[in-house]
Design goal:
The structure is a homodimer of 152-residue chains. Helix content of chain A is 36%, strand content 30%. A 4-stranded antiparallel β-sheet of chain A has the order 3-4-2-5. Chain A has 152 residues and is α+β, with helices and mostly antiparallel strands. Chain A folds into 2 domains: 41 residues, Arc Repressor Mutant, subunit A; 82 residues, Alpha-Beta Plaits, CATH 3.30.70.920. Chains A and B meet through helix 1, strand 1, strand 3, strand 4 and strand 5 of A and helix 1, strand 1, strand 3, strand 4 and strand 5 of B. Strand 5 of chain A pairs antiparallel with strand 3 of chain B, so a sheet runs across the interface. Chains A, B: InterPro entries: ArsR-like_HTH, AsnC-type_HTH_dom, Dimeric_a/b-barrel, Tscrpt_reg_AsnC-like, Tscrpt_reg_AsnC/Lrp_C, Tscrpt_reg_HTH_AsnC-type_CS, WH-like_DNA-bd_sf, WH_DNA-bd_sf.
DNA sequence: CTTTTATATAGATTTATTTTCTATTTTTAA
DNA sequence: TTAAAAATAGAAAATAAATCTATATAAAAG
């Protein structure tokens, strides 16, 4: 489907705060409640709106330690990639895993309590996965920006 | 505040789907609607629940091209860091910017339409920021895992 | 250019959910 | 062991979502 300016503004508003009522949205968009409601339902049906979620303040739940781990496999056969990927997605400390081009194969974003928890994770979980060649950890000093809002 | 097992399960459920009604949650948690409601309100007051948002399927809105950009500044004075950070957070293509330890100063996660859009972004926006020393772009081949759910 | 069809919108109504209120129960601390 | 505080339950009130019917707007066909 093609998104018009109203759809884009609607998506911006919902990406920023999905608790807004259709009434509030209708005022900002100069539409009726029903028109807004139907547009939202359409965006949901099309899968453009993927899901509604709560975002947690990580620093308030002892998960303020963020690590980027750059990882190489020992081989790059489909079998090895698939095996590694199926295992890494199981690890709850790993919020993101991206297969990437360049000097290494994967970039992982890992969230734990502190350095000690990371050491434990690395030794008992990550490096026990099969086919891992090497890992290189980069630690977050501060979070300058972190948003889920995509500009459409 | 200290979170008990019910709070943690509640946060897991809401992080996965914030559209669940308090009725549905109450059934899963074996609590009354009011008890669930009060727990949610407390988590909001404490700032543990940061916000409610819609997550958009990027590939359906022509923002499926993800780049990790590793960046160095020419100097590391507070002035230079602050200036750079205040500018980079304005860029809507930059979803994440992390100040990190190690070989480079920042890791950026950038979302655009395609390689051509990235080239345009790099040339007209990112590299025009002040105090940038060097950039190194790594392109996402596939998204193995990408979740906002923090295991508490 | 007009008619037909489909799509989008508005307002009213119904249904569902959230929020508030009061009463108990449970937990914590004195 | 008792008093105070916190958490929970159920009912009532307030609010919002979802549905329905009618109208308007836009796209396609004759």
């Amino acid at each position: 489907m093609t998104l018009d300016a109203i759809d884009k503004k609607l998506l911006f508003l919902l990406q920023s705060d999905s608790k807004k009522t259709t009434k509030e949205l209708s005022l900002k968009l100069n539409l009726s409640v029903t028109a807004v409601y139907e547009r939202i339902k359409k965006l949901e049906r099309e899968g453009i709106i993927d899901k509604y979620v709560v975002l947690v303040n990580r620093s308030k739940v002892e998960k303020g330690f963020v690590v980027f781990c750059h990882l190489k496999l020992i081989q790059h056969t489909k079998e090895f990639l698939t095996k590694f990927e199926s295992e890494v997605i199981q690890l709850k400390e790993v919020l993101e895993c991206h297969h990437v081009s360049g000097d290494y194969d994967y970039i992982l974003k890992i969230v734990v309590k502190d350095m000690e928890a990371y050491r434990e994770f690395l030794v008992t979980k990550l490096t026990t996965l099969q086919h891992i060649g090497s890992t290189h950890s980069t630690f977050m000093i501060s979070e300058v920006k972190n948003t889920t809002v995509v500009d459409i």
